[in-house]
Amino acid sequence: MDSSEAHLDRIEAQRSTNVSHDQRKGRYFPMNLINKVARKLCSRGGDGATPSAGDTESGLEFLNNLKLSDLFDLPGENVQMNTEIFSRLSDGDKECLEKLKSHGTPMACLKSDRGDSILHLAARWGHLELVKNIVSECPCLVLETNSKDQLPLHVAAHAGHSAIVEAFVASVTFFSDRLAVEDRERLNPYVLKDKYGNTALHLAIEGRYMEMAASLVNENQNASFLENNEGISSLYMAVEAGDVSLVKEILKTTGNDDLEGRNSNLDLKLEGRKYLVHVALDARSTGVLDVILNEYPSLEDERDEEGRTCLSFAASIGFYEGVCNLLDRSTKNVYVCDEDGSFPIHTAAENGHIRIVKEILKRCPHSKHMLNKLGQNVLHIAAKIGEDNLVASLMLEDETKHLSVGQDVNGNTPLHLATLNWRYRSIRQLASDVKILQLRNDNGLTARGLAESVLKPNYIFHERLTVAFLLYAHKLKGSGSVKSLTKPSEPLDHEKSRDYVNTLLLVAALVATMTFAAGFTIPGGFNSSGPHLGRATLATDPSLFYFLLFDILAMQSSLATICTLIWAQLGDPSLVSSSLKLALPLLVFALLCMPLAFVFGVGIVIKHVKWFSLIIILMFILFFYLVAGILAPHVLLQLPNVSPVLCGCILETIIRWQETLSGARWALFPTPSFVRLKKD
């Protein structure tokens, strides 16, 4: 064995402990291949030619003195660099190389405490000229890895230094052109992975350096399809980033065979996570979606790890443009169910994406008849999750209205499901016909019977409100007798009722105090002289009469509330219940009279300023609407023997006010979600 071969064998022994398992297998930068290439080089006795004049003119003159044999002249034992060298490298001081040449230790052996060579450090800090000088002096450092198994190319890509990456690419190209054809692809730094499994291309895309990533893709095609330790390929990351040009650049490298050949080629090359169309949809990029499906149309039929088709996935996340894109290509997947038995239209309805449901119904009218594994149509799902806008839309159209009589595997109609989930807004739309109200499920229960059977004994507002609307519908349609919309609830236990009564007492006392004081603070004051000494200055103003009227009503109602609640403190449970039924409406009346008195009192003072008076009136209307919407339903649902028609009309009016003033999107009642926002 000659001396050069022995030297390379020694280098392999030194480096083998720092090479990852995948690299030792021979796939990424195997040391036995370096030996092999070096031996071939020695046998040929040549180092290759110098760069052309064009290279020199383009700023690649640092390649002039490179020799192929220098690439494999790997360093010996590592030597810890001192702080002075580290500092000068961080500053980009090119003169430090001259000092290192005169140093006893070869500069290729110097390493930082993180295992970085001088080329790693220069690349990380972005010193281009210093990088070029180091490559000229120590080409072997281009292939040297640090403690994270990263080449200087990885470090430069992670830091986003495009010019330095280009310099490394030029160096690799220089050496690659001088290797035998069979060795070029195997001795390939672009596919080398660090300890996390990332190639330089992974790191460039992760940092969103897309131009750099495109140049790396052009240098090596295969790196785009390699997975890291998390099972993610560069192609997957590019799709996830929504970069159309980069995805197009990567996919064009898979070949231009026939469709079946292209699909097979991609499937063989792509490692790790697939589901490219699903990722493009999740990134909400129709551009990337077009690139993928134009090149590989069959991927439209691909399912993700949860068994969802591309169309179903797009419907689940509410990506309307993506759904339209897929439907433009084909509507066949509308009729293909996921592994959980749901069709795309069901998935869209379950997630409240009304616009997508309407789009699917428009393009595929027959999809409204499709049932999931529970035998539920789209109206069942909309009613169950409380999508009242979708329920209203389906119930208003003749083609879908008949879905309301459909029954699932348990015999439940959409009205049954809305009742089970206490969706009082949906019930207003669904309970539109006597036939629907009288339909029974497999347990022999109508929606009314089901509501009364599952109604909790304690007072839960949205349950009581749901029952009230259901009974109101029965009353209007003449389906059975309805004496009252309210249902008696179990009284609170002693401790809770005492806290509740004390809270009401405190509020009533505050109202009484403020209204009592306001009665002696007459707007406009009193006459201090003349024949009407001590009388109100504005006694003839009608606004003063209304101020005093509502102030007196508020004070008397609050005092009556206090007197009533005193009975509730005597410890008799029956007195607690009866006292609260009287005290609550009295207190609400006092709370409504108090702001009325305030508005008329302020109006006396500023009525000469018309625009300000108008603003105050508008503010009061809004406030009165808020208070009435919050308090009135609670009071009505606890009052016994109230006319069901009157109670139902008031509740219906309050909800219609909300829908009119807020576009049917804001709910003042404490429903499971306080504010319901449109999801599309």
TrEMBL record:
The segment(s) forming the PGG domain are 496-602
| ANK repeats (start-end) | 114-136, 340-363
Spell out where the chain crosses the membrane: 504-524, 544-570, 582-605, 611-632
Q: Which domain of life is it from?
A: Eukaryota
Alphabetical keyword list: ANK repeat, Membrane, Repeat, Transmembrane, Transmembrane helix
Q: How does it sit in the membrane?
A: Multi-pass membrane protein
Annotated InterPro entries: Ankyrin_rpt, Ankyrin_rpt-contain_sf, PGG_dom
Region entry Disordered, spans: 1-24
Q: Which GO terms describe its cellular component?
A: plasma membrane
Q: Please provide an example of a Pfam family that matches this protein in its UniProt record.
A: Ank_2
PROSITE patterns, alphabetically? ANK_REP_REGION (PS50297), ANK_REPEAT (PS50088)
Which residue intervals are annotated with compositional bias (Basic and acidic residues) in the record?
1-13
User: Gene3D superfamilies given for it?
Assistant: Ankyrin repeat-containing domain (1.25.40.20)
| Compartments reported by the entry | Membrane
Q: What is this protein called?
A: PGG domain-containing protein
This chain's source organism reads: Arabidopsis arenosa (Sand rock-cress)
